[in-house]
Write a structure and sequence with these properties.
Elements: H1 2-36, E1 55-64, H2 94-97, E2 100-103, E3 108-114, E4 129-134, E5 137-141, E6 144-148, E7 151-156, E8 166-168, H3 172-175, E9 180-182, E10 188-194, H4 200-208, H5 210-216, E11 218-221, E12 230-232, H6 235-241, H7 253-256, H8 282-290, E13 302-306, H9 309-333, H10 335-348, H11 353-362, H12 365-398, H13 409-416, H14 428-445, H15 452-463, H16 473-485, H17 493-520, H18 524-529, H19 534-551, E14 554-565, H20 566-581, H21 586-599, E15 605-606, H22 610-615, E16 622-630, E17 640-644, E18 647-654, H23 658-677, H24 691-729, H25 732-735, H26 740-744, H27 749-777, H28 785-810, H29 815-832, H30 840-849, H31 870-877, H32 882-900, E19 903-908, E20 913-921, E21 929-936, H33 937-941, H34 950-976, E22 981-984, E23 989-997, H35 998-1001, E24 1004-1013, E25 1016-1018, E26 1020-1022, E27 1033-1035, E28 1037-1038, E29 1041-1042
Parallel strand pairs: 1-13
Antiparallel strand pairs: 1-2, 1-9, 3-4, 3-10, 4-7, 5-6, 7-8, 10-11, 12-13, 14-16, 15-21, 17-18, 19-20, 20-23, 21-24, 22-23, 24-25, 24-28, 26-27, 28-29
């Protein structure tokens, strides 16, 4: 039996050998035939189609369109191409298409591997890797946008078998065909689209690793009639499949069916996509294709649809950003009724029955109950729509059934970037790839910073329960950063330049959030407030941040601090403020200069001489600033650190890396406020004075600088992007994102243009401040609402200060600046409302005469004319007239006076002393101040007794002089003794107490006013009907009476 087996084995081997020899002979014959017969003719040299060795492949892409209707579809990967064929009977539904459409490709790179064996190639049977760069040219003809498609073929350097360098091919292929020009003998391909050029290591893998291609790329059988991704390139398929080729009335018809408004049926929904809509001619495309198809051999061209996971996210972000801009501009346009209405809403919900009664009596109840919901419902609806859209965004970013699958974002990042691969030698090409990866990732994350909903979505992506899963795109980024920075020699030369740029640009998007997580995860309160995942946060605090800092030669000395005395601490903050202000833009410097010049018009002595007061403190209070170790100064990253006793602290005064600078500044701010707000033994109880002042001052200085730096970086680029978005927002398609109520309130084009040009740099600043505000307050005081409101007060004052600075710098209050001020004002209300003292007569007058009042006159607009119907008031505010803007400032200031004004209570202690209690809202240590003058009581009363003797008058003047001297001395002593400055946590108010002998007090009165910030005076009244300037302002008190 063994001999029989042996015979069969030898016979089989002989057959295989003979077969292999025959195969080699055949390949040799084919190679010689290839050399003698020209099959690679350019298209323009061909006389007959059958002579051309070109098979046209026409790429299109999946685009995301799931933004319309009352309920959005769940996030899914796209269906096969056949699902998109329009049967022209309106039977297609968005659910069948899973929220996608088929569109023209975006600019980028398409990689095609010819899958072998290709028998006609001889020894080259395994097929080639083909690279095409898609560089469309956008043209406009008769008002319609079209696209001239051009696919330029790239090839390896001559004589090279590696992918070190690619360049355009010779001949027509190098100039570009209107499609992918494939050889006719290719029947199977693997294909992938990438917005950015892929690295040589990925190209090598793509060319040589069949298993990689099977898992990572779309496989297409060009001869199959059942392909998921390909269909015959026929005119009816272009017209019935690709939105850009459809007749205008048929474009996006599936998604228009979700819109109930008949006016939107003619809208071009493609306008809200990344590249907008195109109007393509299928007849022209078919002429190109038919010129190369040989009917004798039944050649077929194909339309191939490509996955575009980055494109899906960009489509979603475009819808999100348009909604953001709509909300912002809606708020800016309606800032007048919204601001006054916010005041009314807060008053109407007061626990004080007297206040509620006056609101009921003095506000036009029918108008209020009808129009206030109409005005505010669109804002709430937009916020809910943004949340729904961002939920889709998160699913595409990390959803297990989407992100990690073929066509998903995580799948794309994992397979087509080698940032997570361990490499024996890390090359400059690897560093370039890393920088490209980080730039792309930043572009997908950065827009999330500009709204509360977006910031929460970012927080969920980075620190939520899915952040540690392998399907998370953030997990790929985190591991890619840590892995890339861990290779030997990466911190030197040109490699370091690219790595520095990559890390820095990632941190510019997420640095503030990373700093929060790095600090607050150690607090018990953090775990109770936020619903973040412990392990997700831990990989940031124990893996990402330490590795990034190590790469930059920095090490945060956990648990080690520079312990500053209070005097040293304030000097530190002053130095920081002075140093950082040097880097602010001209607009902010100009604003500060105007504020200072405007302040000179007010008179009075300062109560608090902060520079001397702070210098005088040498008590036992110690403020801890985290220390940092500079391990590799030779890296020369232009670090300038704040040193204390020759020890570098964590505060970076200067760095050439803006993202790292943002992270370190945020880290120090959160670290300091964390220590001052929480007691280790009772973490839910905020420490009492003096730590409140320490944290509020740090909040004001450092937080304001972080926001200002962010706004300065936005600058012109922000304005350009916003202008482009505004153009899209003015188009009918943008209305389709809104519900019916919001659509009716869509901004007119002229109003939008004025808002963009006049105020969006300022509102861009609002985005920066809001990011800081949300970040700071997310780690607030748990359920301690009183303490939480104190933070709101401080942050609100920052916004108001900035708003008024810009307003003074530009000599006008633009819509955008008004928004800054109003937002700041609304933030301040929560902490001071409970302790307000009302003058009921003035209060009633204000309510009756306000925008929502029921008075016969609208005195802020005119004291002569009767009040117009509310509809006419709304029309008037949209005209952006200076008179209306002036009235808004005056009216808002009157409300602010009720909510933020200080109070002086004068009491007799029955022991020969008069007690002056200055009750101050929004008091900030180191900044707020009282200005005062002691004046004769007879003069201030306007009374002089004509029968008084010279002696009596002389005595009166003498007593006034003594009283003035004693009061000035008393208030000077009180201001220097912090025990006289009492902070009440429940009300958020600070009280300064001054005692004067009773026998002198009757000869004097105190004129005084309060400046919670250096550019905000309270109380301040503008003359109604006059321009709101200091010349037309009345400010201050005489004792307890408003001037």
């Amino acid at each position: 039996m063994d001999s029989v087996d042996s015979i069969f084995t030898k016979t089989g081997e002989a057959v295989e050998t003979a077969s292999e020899k025959a195969k080699q002979v055949f390949e040799k014959i084919v190679d010689e035939a290839q050399a003698r017969m020209p099959h690679q003719l350019d298209m323009d040299t061909v006389v007959r189609p059958c002579d051309a060795n070109i098979r046209p492949i026409y790429p299109v892409r999946y685009a995301y369109m799931n933004f319309f209707g009352d309920e959005l579809l769940s996030a899914q990967l796209p269906p096969p191409i056949s699902a998109f064929i329009d049967p022209y009977d309106d039977s297609l539904s968005a659910s069948v298409l899973r929220g996608y459409s088929i569109r023209m490709p975006r600019a980028g790179w398409i990689y095609v591997k010819e899958e072998g064996p290709i028998k006609t190639r001889g020894s080259q049977r395994d097929g080639k890797l083909l690279i095409f760069k898609f560089s469309p040219e956008i043209v406009t003809l008769e008002g319609k946008r079209g696209m001239v498609t051009k696919y330029t073929k790239y090839e390896q350097k001559a004589g090279s078998s590696a992918w070190e360098e690619i360049h355009p091919a010779s001949g027509t292929a190098g100039l570009g065909y209107p499609f992918l020009a494939m050889d006719k003998d290719v029947t199977k391909i693997s294909i992938v689209y990438s917005e950015v050029k892929l690295s040589k290591s990925i190209l090598k893998k793509m060319d040589n690793d069949k298993e990689f291609r099977r898992n990572a790329m779309q496989f297409v059988d060009l001869d199959s009639e059942q392909s998921d991704y390909a269909i015959d390139a026929k005119q009816e398929h272009f017209d019935g499949l690709v939105e850009d080729f459809k007749d205008p009335e048929r474009q996006f018809q599936t998604y228009k069916k979700q819109l109930s408004d008949p006016a939107l049926q003619s809208a071009d929904l493609g306008d809200i996509s990344i590249d907008g809509s195109f109007f393509m001619n299928s007849d022209m495309e078919m002429r190109y294709i038919d010129s190369l198809i040989c009917p004798h051999y039944k050649d077929k061209a194909k339309i191939v649809v490509l996955n575009d996971p980055v494109g899906y996210q960009r489509d979603i972000l475009m819808a999100y950003m348009l909604l953001n801009l709509w909300e912002l501009n809606y708020g800016v346009t309606n800032i007048y009724p919204l601001t006054i209405g916010n005041f009314i809403e807060i008053l109407s919900s007061s626990k004080n029955e007297e206040i509620k009664k006056y609101v009921e009596e003095c506000i036009h109840q029918e108008n209020w109950k009808t129009w206030w919901p109409k005005l505010t419902i669109p804002i709430n609806d937009i916020k809910n729509k943004k949340k729904d859209i961002l939920d889709l965004y998160n699913h595409f970013f990390e959803g297990g059934m989407i992100a990690g699958k073929l066509g998903g974002l995580t799948h794309y990042f994992k397979n087509f970037f080698s940032v997570s691969d361990k490499k024996d030698i890390f090359t400059e090409d690897d560093a370039r790839e890393f920088a490209e990866f980080c730039i792309l990732y930043n572009e997908l994350m950065e827009p999330l910073k500009h709204s509360e909903e977006g910031f929460l979505a970012m927080e969920s992506i980075i620190a939520g329960p899915l952040a540690i899963e392998e399907n998370s795109a953030w997990n790929v980024a985190l591991n890619g950063i840590v892995n890339s920075l861990g290779h030997d020699g990466v911190n030197k030369g040109s490699i370091a330049k690219f790595l520095n740029r990559g890390v820095d640009i990632i941190f510019s998007a997420v640095g503030n959030l990373l700093a929060r997580l790095f600090v607050f995860t150690t607090e018990i309160s953090y775990k109770g407030i936020l619903h973040l995942h412990v392990l997700s946060v831990k990989q940031i605090t124990h893996k990402l941040v330490p590795n990034v800092l190590e790469y930059f030669g920095l090490e945060i000395k956990q648990g080690q601090y520079a312990e500053l005395t209070e005097k040293e601490y304030y000097k530190f903050l002053k130095k920081v403020e002075d140093y950082e202000n040097q880097g602010l833009s001209g607009l902010f410097k100009k604003g500060v200069a105007h504020v200072k010049s405007g302040s000179k018009k007010f008179f009075g002595k300062k109560v608090f001489d902060w520079s001397n007061i702070l210098d005088g403190y040498n008590n036992n209070l110690k403020i801890k600033i985290p220390l940092i170790k500079l391990k590799r100064p030779e890296l020369n990253l232009n670090f300038k650190l704040f040193y204390y006793l020759n020890k570098p602290t964590g505060y970076v005064l200067k760095s050439s890396l803006t993202g790292l600078d943002l992270f370190m500044k945020s880290y120090v701010l959160y670290q300091m406020t964390s220590m001052s707000r929480f007691d280790k033994n009772a973490p839910f109880n905020a420490n009492r004075l003096p730590y409140y002042y320490v944290s509020s001052y740090a909040n004001t200085i450092l937080g304001g600088l972080i926001a200002a730096k962010g706004s300065s970086a936005i600058g012109g680029d922000f304005l350009k992007v916003t202008a482009k978005l505004a153009d899209k927002l003015n188009r009918p398609a943008a209305r389709a994102l809104l519900n019916s109520i919001s659509r009716k309130l869509m901004l007119e084009s002229a109003v939008m243009t004025r808002a963009v040009n006049g105020g969006l740099i300022a509102t861009g600043f609002v985005s920066g401040v809001l990011s800081y505000y949300d970040a700071y307050n997310s780690f607030g005081f748990g359920n301690n609402k009183e303490a939480y409101s104190h933070v709101a007060i401080g942050t609100g004052s920052i916004m108001m200060a900035v708003g008024w600075s810009i307003a003074l710098a530009t000599s006008e209050v633009t819509f955008g600046i008004s928004l800054v001020i109003a937002l700041g004002a609304s933030l301040m209300l929560g902490g001071t409302f409970a302790a307000i003292y009302f003058n009921w007569v003035d209060f009633k007058t204000l309510l009756k005469n306000c925008f929502w009042g029921n008075g016969e006159k609208y005195a802020f607009w005119s004291t002569d004319e009767d009040r117009k119907p509310l509809e006419e008031q709304f029309e008037k505010i949209k005209k952006v007239e200076k008179g209306v803007n002036d009235s808004y400032v005056v009216e808002m200031q009157e409300f602010l006076n009720f909510f933020t004004k200080p109070i002086l209570k004068i009491e007799n202690n029955k022991q020969g002393k008069i007690i002056y209690k200055f009750i101050l809202p929004n008091f900030k240590w180191g900044e707020s101040n009282i200005y005062h003058e002691v004046i004769p009581s007879t003069l201030s009363d306007g009374y002089s007794d004509p029968d008084a003797s010279i002696v009596e008058r002389s005595y009166s003047r003498y007593c006034y002089s003594v009283a003035k001297d004693k009061f000035n001395k008393a208030i000077n002593i009180a201001s220097k003794n912090r025990e006289n400055l009492i902070y009440d946590e429940r009300s958020g108010l600070t009280t300064l107490t001054v005692e004067v002998e009773e026998k002198y007090s009757e000869y004097m009165k105190v004129f005084w006013y309060y400046k919670p910030t250096k550019d905000n005076v309270s109380p301040l009244h503008y003359k109604w009907g006059k321009e709101p300037t200091l010349e037309n302002a009345i400010y201050g008190y005489e004792d307890e009476v408003l001037c």
